[in-house]
Design goal:
The complex is a heterodimer of chains A (about 300) and B (about 425). With about 300 residues, chain A is of the alpha+beta class. Chain A has ten helices and six strands, in the order αββαββαβααβααααα. In chain A, the strands form two sheets. Chain A has a four-stranded antiparallel β-sheet with strand order 3-4-2-5. Chain A has a two-stranded parallel sheet with strand order 1-6. In chain B, a hairpin with a 3-residue loop joins strand 2 and strand 3 (about 90-95). Classes of the chains: A alpha+beta (about 300), B alpha+beta (about 425). Strand 5 (about 115-120) of chain A pairs antiparallel with strand 11 (about 230-240) of chain B, so a sheet runs across the interface. Chain A: Its main location: membrane.
Chain lengths: ~300, ~425
Amino acid sequence: MKPKFDIIRLSKWFFLLSSAITVAGIIVFATLGFNLGTDFKAGSRVQITFAKPVDQTKVTQMFNSIGLHVDNTALTVGGVQRNVAIVRFPEIISGAQQDKLEQQAEVSYFGKKLPTAVQTVDPFVAAQTARKAVYSVLIAAAFIVVYIAIRFEFRFAIAGIVALLHDAFIVLAAFALLRREVDLTFIAAILTIVGYSINDTIVIFDRIRENLKIVKPKDIDTLKQLVNRSLWQTMSRSINTVITVLIAAIILYFFGGVSIRNFTFALIIGLVSGAYSSIFIASPLWVVWRGRSLKGGKGKSSTKTEPV
Amino acid sequence: MKWGRFIAFLLMAAVIIGGTAGSVTNLWKSVPLGLDLQGGFDLLYKIEPLPGQQITASGKQALLQAVNNRVNNLGTASPIIDLEGTNQIRVQLAGAFDQSNARKVIGETAQLQIYSSAKIDKKTGQVTGPAGTLLATGNDLKSNAHWVQDPNTGENEVAISFKQASKWENITKQFYQKPIYVFLNGKLLTDPVIQEKMYTGDSVISGPTLNSVQACNQLAYSLNAGALPYNLSLESQQSVGPSLGQASLKATLWAGLAAIVLIFIFMIVMYRLAGLIADLALVAYGYVTVAVFDGMHVVLTLSGLAALVLGIGMAVDANIITYERIKDEIRNGRSLRSAVKIGNKNALRTILDSNATTFIAGAVMYWFGQGDIRGFAVALMISIIVSLLTAVVLSRILLLTFTNSNVVRRPWWYGVGKGVLKKDEAKV
């Protein structure tokens, strides 16, 4: 089967693209930071679902009436019908205040008790959760490296991990840029993406490994050809798989519960990025590294651009 | 055409569809739903020892037991109470119940203390705190406190009895015709004047706050459950109103169903009959996964539901990998039957490797995560194992049986494109 176009030859451009996204992401982190949810920032978060679109002034008045001051930026409106109000407070709402809100304030301002979710987190717990989240991504990555290094080889493992960190990074950058709330479900999404991205990469690496058994490349050009061929052999699988999972994620995003919207949004970005990085980043990266030990490899592949 | 094989295939298909259709609704109903799906709350308390006190393992067990007793008195279905970290305890209650009352019952200590005298505010004459010597505490009581009504006045009271009758006897002797001060959690409950000496150790307590049967019962429960060995301070809480949970569940279920139907159609369009077989295996995947959740009493949360759907993606992936391999083999000029065999074999290692890495991610999430993330990790790991069984083993048996039955011979039925098909048909 003839390669349709030479992915490896163009890999410089993909590395460049990913590096550009990475730099842009770092700038976004540095300037905007994350919109941390209550899981990671101490305080309270109250989510109220209305039958109609949210009347922001009325909601603010309601909270003021029970002695809670609502900042300008603290109220966000969500839901397809703009009928979900999410209000964040830097302080911890007491049980008594919560009772007052649910049993009196809602009734006097909106005529009835409304579906309400309240979440409060102590600063200590918030810090602990954030730490655990970062550890779990790093440890998951470390275990995956060990597994791939045993089943494949070390170079595959590193290329795969670079690709998956790239995906996690892109999702983080997107959340920072779009000011989406970073909460616990977001961490679950990142971990899912880590799992999916490596899954995707492994399928391609597996094909490269298999083809390496048939042809033993002596120079860099044969190696490039071999990887190109492997990529195209697995292309329809890569595309079909990402389509099926994307179908599920997109439908869940638009029609699933409001509380998993962040999760599915992260998943959608991560899935696209995961499919992209498996094909255009992980394998070309491996070629660059592997090619160094081959004839003609040193001169041509001196590019040290790593996307993360 | 081999009728025996074909009938075997049809039988398997009928068992999968019939078995699922027949019991899936009942099964679904018996899966416990998380508090984000049916409402409820999640409370995380920090265990705080009194000054000079140490948190010990046995103390924590006693605390767990005491909290358990209190929660059981609330009568909510399947509460989850767990120690977390070194000094935290998490209580999760699902369903519709009086959340503010529950918070009170769980977190408040029922420290009953009987003092010989009290600090009294000179201006108002109100008792502000205990003074004098501590005569007895809740620990001196048997756990048989209960509500009673005074036969003469009809007043609500809590009957208590001392573990050592002599202790109560000494107190009543010493304070005969004098008041004693009974404090609950540092607040004056009652200050009765001892009217007679008591020898049996049985007594009653009453007070202005114990004005209803409910209030008496609550105090009795708390006394019986024993004082908490440590103080608890609420660190974080998450509460979801029952109607909000229901709405999320409904929306997510419908979305999941729509996604599954679309995936089914996609597989049939891409891989035709083989796609249909994959869909059959997917039905089995969904059913078995829910059954395992049920059997293991996994509480299904929103993120668990998401993991289930993601698992469908992984199960589909396993089938796609296999079918693409089969197509490769047909393109290489193999006969349909041997292509199916070799394709399956070649795909297996890829599927195992790719699932193993995702499983590792799930296991790490389980070790390090808490709450929702843990639920997600469990759901993900179960999904992976079940998908390996259904999308690899079951799907393979179905496909091999079907192929061996020779009902169809054209590779077109397995999703192989036209150009290849013509060349190949000449060979068949």
